[in-house]
Each structure stands twice: as structure tokens, then as C-alpha cells.
Write a structure and sequence with these properties.
Elements lengths: L1 H15 L30 H70 L4 H7 L3 H72 L3 H23 L3 H4 L6 H12 L17 H11 L8 H7 L2 E2 L9 E4 L5 E7 L2 E4 L8 E4 L5 E5 L4
Helix pairs in contact: 1-7, 2-4, 2-5, 3-4, 7-8
Amino acid sequence: MTTAAVALVCAVTVLTAPGVAYANSYANPAKPAPGPTPAPTPTTADDKDLEKVRKELDRLYHDAAVATDEYNAAEERAGEQSDELVKLARKIVKGQEKLDELKERVGAAARAQYRSGGLPPQAQLMLSDDPRLFLDGAGRVREGQQATKGLLAELTRTQQDLQAYAKDASTQWQRLEANRKAKAAAKKKIKSRIADAEKLEAKLEKEERERLLELEQETAYQNQAAWLSSGILEEINGKASAQGKKAVTYATAQIGKPYEWGAEGPKTYDCSGLTSQAWAAAGRGIPRTSQEQWKQLPRIDIKDMRPGDLIIYHDDASHVGMYIGDGAIVHAPRPGRTVTIAGAGSMAILGVVRPDR
């Protein structure tokens, strides 16, 4: 809790004084990242074996992250399709009410024409006491006939609209069912990968698990050091926008909360759930998944990054973190971990996107 509080204070400091809060951590590869670093402990397995375990865990959790994106995307599409089905259902109800009304009006017009048009026009003229009344009546009949034609045309259009609505509803229902199946398949895959990872970790002794965590931190730190060695941080000096500051404030306030796949807060998050909710809190809606964030949001060069921008990781865009300045991100790493601060270069960067460009 103390570590999380210190990290939170540091993260908020970044908003007002970029280049200070992490100058002695992520910006300087010669010094350790903030947070407790376990001292080396005796192990019952060779580090090479533990490194194999670490890589296997990475693979399992990566597969779970990909499946989580699939689940979130299917859930989002299913929600949109459900909303569309509700709208179509309302249109069908209103269309049916209009159709019933038009049928009644057309029937009434037809009955009126039948009553007035039972005799030929010549006979009606001969039997009429006043030819002018007959002519006036004939004019009204023609008007009635034209009105009836208009009603019939409107009736036909309404029927066509109803058929189109029904067809659209059928299509949306099929898509909804397909996305429900996709969600179920993704959920099954997520649970399977996480269960496999937990079983693998459960086989380790306490000292081995501690050493495994050290190896994870060392690998992340080495990646960060390699990224910083290019001098990239000297080029990154962008300042957060007003919305970016709000997004960072929200994201860093979640530090210490557990990762949970498919979660969007407020108690738990997955990686894209954290970033999408942070930007929603800043007044900017963005796609739910890291893959869609990568596809849809404007891309920028790494050197042009500023706090609030999103860094997309891995070739398949399966992870996302929010840049908070000084070479650091805040992100929800994976199951079994909490929202935390990490080096921006600690994972393979695919690219950077900016929600408020």
C-alpha cells in the first residue's frame, strides 16, 4: 500500500513537472525502477529452467490477453446489435400500426367510392335534379380516387419498409448470435490459458516464485534500458493536454487495483478497460479494445509522445498502457497483477496513438 501511494504521488507529479518524477527510475537505466525489488534468494531450480517457465507464462498470458480482446470486442458488438434490434423492433411496431391505419383508410375510401359510383356517369346526370350538383360530385369522386391512389402508394411503401425492417432484424439477430458464440469461445480460451498459467506457477516453491518475479522485473528492466539507450527520451518532451491530464489522473488513481479480464472498473480492470475508462473520465470516448484503439485512433511518432497518449504493445496490439511522462506508463499488466507503473519500453512497442488529437 505504501509503494502504491508513493507511486501515485509520483505519477501525479508528472502532470505538473514532466521530467522530474521518474528521472531517477525509468529515465535512468543505471538505477532500479520504483517499487520493492526482492533481494536474491536461494532457489531450488536453475535460473535457466525458471526462464523457460517465465517465457511459457508470458505465452499463456499473452494468449489470454488476445482472447480478452476478442471477448471485449464481441461484447461491444453484441451490445450495439442489441440496441439496433430494439430500434428495429420499435420501427416494426410503429410501421404495423401505420399499416393498419392505412388499410382502414383505404377500405373506407373504397366503400365510399362504391356507394357513389354504382351507376354510370350518364345515368347519374339524367337522374340528377341539378346538373351542377352532379358535376360537383363528379369532381369530388375524382379527388377521392386520387386520394385513394395516394393511400395505396403509401400502403405499399409502408409494407416495403416493414419487410426491410424485418430483414434487418433477422440479420442483426444472426450477428448477435454469432457474437455470443464468439464471446463464449473467447471466455473458454481465457479461462483455459489462465488456469494453465496458475497450475504452472502452483508447481513452484515459494522461493522459486519469488525468483521468477525477480526474473520478470529484470527482463522488463533490461528492455527499458535498451529502449532508453537509443536516446529516445531526450526527444520526448511533449506536454499533456487538458484532457490528457484528466486521463492520467484517473489512470494513476487506479494503481493497486487488481487486473481482471473483461473488467472496466471501478474495482478491477484489464489493460484496455483502464485506458478506455480513463479517457471516458476525461470526456473522450475511445474504442474498448487495444486492437481497436490501434486501428481507429490517430497514430503519432514515439518522439512526439505526451502524457495521456496510449502505447500499443506487441505485433498483434494485444496490450496497451498510458504514457505518463519520463519514460513511464501506467497499465494493468495481467491476471495476478495490479494496476501499476512500468517502463514504457519494458515491452515490445508497436506504436503510439493519441485519443485527443
